[in-house]
Design a protein that fits this description.
Layout (H helix, E strand, L loop, with lengths): L3 H25 L4 H24 L7 H29 L1 H8 L2 H13 L5 H21 L17 H21 L5 H22 L13 H27 L2 H8 L2 H12 L8 H20 L1
Helix pairs in contact: 1-9, 1-10, 1-11, 2-8, 2-9, 3-4, 3-7, 3-8, 4-6, 4-7, 5-6, 5-7, 5-10, 6-12, 8-9
Length: 300
């Protein structure tokens, strides 16, 4: 039977993630990616912390197991996943990294079956593989030709980097599900996850001497607008994503959330047509993604 509530939250998360990607893209045209990362973290906490304190203080529903689980979720996905993702783009290029990162739903599904005991049927797996294939094609198509990066000759050994990113992104929801077993509220979970992720990312950027020297006065108003919108939409994404994980299995949630590149394509064509082009391969890939997502939704 289809989990309607979980499916709804997962679709909302995919929409919000796609919108976030558009805002990040617009903001990074004049700003810096590391600025966007930190500003997004701060925006998450700015919105979530006051509401969490108002609704749940002093009983936050946290146990030691929940704290560790959500902190690991923030560290695994937000820090390790993102750090390896950026490193992969720098090393082998975005056009090679994005399709490999699209294997995240498979990592999440297999680990969820092994660790959480979620049922992974042959039909589920078929839908996930369809989804991955379509996402790989979509991701490759929407990468700008002039922003590929990396070298033409890539050693197969370097593929470990994007595979590592996909693995860490895939393992994050497993830790989140473990945390939710302790009946921790969604917003409290987000605070723990975000603080852990922000702490790890700050230390990482400090060590690399790449921490942004962000200033409201020196930043262009249009850039601030995109940063703020990215922070708001990302907060909606995280809240919806964790609401989906609380109510539905990982095997359903993660594949649906990863359809966000479709949202990016549609919004880009509507509002950024000068930056995007429609190709027959893109249409075919989008169709594969829709079919795969439908199979996963109806069989989970």
């Amino acid at each position: 039977m289809v989990n309607v509530l979980g499916l709804t939250f997962a679709v909302l998360a995919a929409l919000a993630l796609g919108v976030t990607s558009i805002f990040v893209r617009l903001g990074s045209r004049s700003g810096k990616s590391n600025e966007i990362v930190i500003v997004t973290f701060i925006a998450n906490l700015t919105f979530v912390v006051p509401i969490t304190l108002y609704w749940y203080y002093p009983n936050f529903g946290l146990t030691p197991r929940a704290i560790v689980a959500f902190a690991m979720a923030g560290t695994m996905g937000t820090f390790f996943g993102r750090a390896l993702f950026y490193k992969s783009i720098e090393t082998i290029g975005a056009s090679r990294t994005e399709p490999i990162k699209a294997t995240q739903p498979l990592h999440a599904a297999v680990i969820a079956a092994l660790v959480l005991g979620e049922a992974l049927t042959a039909t589920n797996l078929f839908g996930i593989l369809l989804l991955i294939g379509g996402l790989a094609l979509v991701s490759r198509e929407i990468v700008n030709d002039d922003d590929v990066g990396g070298s033409d000759n890539v050693s197969p050994a370097l593929l470990v980097v994007p595979l590592g990113a996909a693995f860490f992104f895939g393992i994050e929801p497993i830790f989140a599900k473990i945390g939710f077993e302790e009946d921790t509220p969604i917003l409290v979970a987000l605070v723990v996850k975000t603080v852990a992720g922000l702490t790890a990312m700050t230390l990482y950027l400090r060590v690399r001497n790449n921490f942004p020297s962000f200033s409201l006065r020196s930043t262009e108003p249009v850039v601030l607008k995109w940063y703020a919108l990215a922070g708001i939409s990302n907060t909606i994404f995280l809240t919806s994503y964790y609401a989906a994980l609380e109510t539905a299995p990982v095997i359903l949630v993660v594949p649906l959330v990863q359809t966000s590149p479709l949202v990016v394509v549609v919004l880009s064509l509507l509002f950024l047509s000068h930056l995007e082009r429609v190709t027959p391969r893109l249409i075919a890939a989008a169709t594969i993604v829709v079919v795969g997502a439908t199979v996963v939704s109806l069989t989970t």
